[in-house]
User: Fold these one by one.
Assistant:
Number 1:
Amino acid sequence: MPIIHPPQYTKITHPQTRVIEACYTFRITMDESDESISFLVEEPSTLVSSMIAPCLEENRIWWEGFLHLFLERSSKFFSKAYTIQQLLPIITHTFAMSNAMSNAMSNAASNAMSNAVSNAAPDSVSGPSTVLLSPKSIQIRGGTFCVFWDHECEPLVIDIPVGTLPVDPEISELSERFESECSAVSDLIPMSPSVPVLEEFSLQEIPLSSTENAARLHDRQKAKEARLKAKLAIYRAQTEMNEYYDKYGTDLSDSDASDSDTESVSSRK
C-alpha cells in the first residue's frame, strides 16, 4: 500500500506572477507489490502531461481509490475535510524529473527549482512502448493540486510463434512409449519364424504436398500409432507362445488357436 509522508513546507516564487507562495509537498512511496497503471504510446513521440489524464480516466477506480487513501491519511493536516469531487476540478498532472536531474538540483534555491521544473526537458519514446505510471509526490500551492508522476518506458515487443503445428501431448507421449517398448522388443527377443512378420514401411516416404493440412498430419500420426500397437501385440503374442512352449514343451498349433478363439467367442455370448 502506498505510503503518504507528512508534508514539507517551503516558499516558492510563481514562475509567471513572481508572487511568493506557500508550498506543501507530500512525498509518496510506492511498494513493489503496489498496483501501477499504464498507457500505450504507439508512435515515436515526446511524453507530455496531457497523456496522463486519459490513462487515469481508463483506470478511474484505481485513481479514485488513491485519492481516497490520500485524503484519509493526510486529513489531520487540513483545516477541514475535503472530498474527491472537490479535488478533481483543481488537480493537474506532470511527469516528475528524473533522479539524475533531481539530485543535480537538490541544493538549488526553491524559486530556481520551481522555474527549472517548469522548463525541464521532457522525455521521449522512440517506438511503440508501454509507459508505467506511479505517483511520486503531490504539491499544493497557490490554489492548485499538482500530482508528479514517476514513469518507466518498456518497449512493446510481441513475439508470435509461427511455423509450427500443434501436437496433441497425449498422442506424442503414447507414440514415444510405444517406440521405446518396440525398440526393446527388437533388441532383446528375436521373432520366431512361425510368427508372421509385419512388413515395415516408413510413413515419411509417403509424398506430402506443401499445402498439407493439420488433419492429414493427424491421420499420419494415428497410422503410426496403429503400426506401433500392432508391433507391440506381436511381441506380446510371441511372449505368450514362448511361455507355453517352456511349460508344455510343444508349440501352439493352428488348431489349438482356433479352438481357443471359438471358446472365447462362446464365453462372451
Number 2:
Amino acid sequence: MIFFHDNVAFNLVLILCSLELFLVGVDIMTTKHEHEVHHKAAVDHRKAAHHFEAAAKHQILAAEADDNDDEVVAAHHAYLAYGHQIQAIRFAEKAAIEDESVDHSDVDHE
C-alpha cells in the first residue's frame, strides 16, 4: 500500500498516470455529442429505475392481497406491476442502446 506524505508524490503519480494514458492512446475526454447521448441514457436509466420500483411496490401489494385472499385486489396490483415491468425493461434497453451507440472514432460530431 502506498501512502502519500506530501502533495509532490501524489502529483507525480497523477502526472505519470496521465502520461501513460496519453501514450497508450486512451482518450478520456468526451465530446459534446457523447455527453448528450450519455445524458439521454442517464435519464432513461432513471425512468427504468422508477418503473422497476413501482413494479416492486405493486408486487408487494399483490402479495399482501393474496395473503388476505383478496383475488380482485391481487390481480389488479399484479396487472399494474406487469405494466411497470414492461416500461422498465423498455427504458433500460433504450438506455443501453444509447450508451452503446457512442462511436469513439466518429469525428463528425466534434
